[in-house]
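anyone seen this seq b4? input:
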Amino acid sequence: MRKFIFKRFLISVFILIAVTLLIYVLMRNLPTSYVSSIARQRAATDKTKSYQDWLDELEEIYHMDDGYIEGYVNWAGEAVRGNFGESWHFKQPVTTVFKDKIWYSVVLNIIQFVLHIVIAIPLGVKAAVKQYSRTDYMITFLSLVTISFPTFFLAEILKYIFSTKLGWFPLYGMISRNHEFFSPFGQALDISYHFVLPVVVLVFLSIGGLVRYTRTNMLEVLNSDYIRTARAKGVSESRVINHHAFRNTLIPVVTILGGSLPSLFSGAMITETLFQIEGIGYTSYQAMTQGDVPFTMFYLAFMAILTLVGILMQDILYAVVDPRVRIS
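predicted toks r here
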């Protein structure tokens, strides 16, 4: 196992270098020069330097005047030391902005992750056990609906009904006007209150895929020879379902859940933007629309690292939960 993990780690490092190099080249070849735009803005607000002086300084700082390989090596060398530069839009170091915003996304997505497991897996098992029944058709229809709904469409429907018409939940934002006057517990409740609709959107849109995946694997397990043997020996149906079938159904399901790591930390860009939740997803959207190259580079590299770690976790979890798997 150690040899396997080390080998996959080296492969992941190679892939990360290739991906970040591609990101760097793409950012250098954008049709609009964001460096020029920032230089014009700074020249207009700070008369001590001309536009050309600002342009030369920015190109030197971000290695835009170097060749692709040389510029990438310089950027990667600074990145390894944790220096991703200053965010042009937020006027703070990129890592400082990241530390301030990431926890909102983590809390939001952990709540969504737990709820979608608690809801989706039992529904998938129930649909498989009641195959071709009315329950199965209803659950299957629900899963298809959740897969088909666009995020922005569902979010706007919920906001219209529960915010505009009923007034039960805030339309957007994270805190109320009087948030600073609440007690610590009241402030936590206030933030939780603002998180209700975003969590509902994320959970509703995520359960469909896991329901169908669980149902398919549960049906495959229920049609296995050892399940028929257990039933022939007189084992109760509840024990067959809960002890024999469900445990083996979890093997592929766990590997899928292991790949959910990127979503827990990368933020839900569309949902956070629609509800103006100041997590890392909404922050990265603001940075991209404002041409914030340092933060965009950092965010894309961060996403690449999370994806590679998630894939590695999938392979490890599969070997852990399935004793039949042996890695030489």
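The first helix runs from residue 2 to 28. The CA atoms of residues 3 and 328 lie 8 Å apart. kinda curious what u guys think
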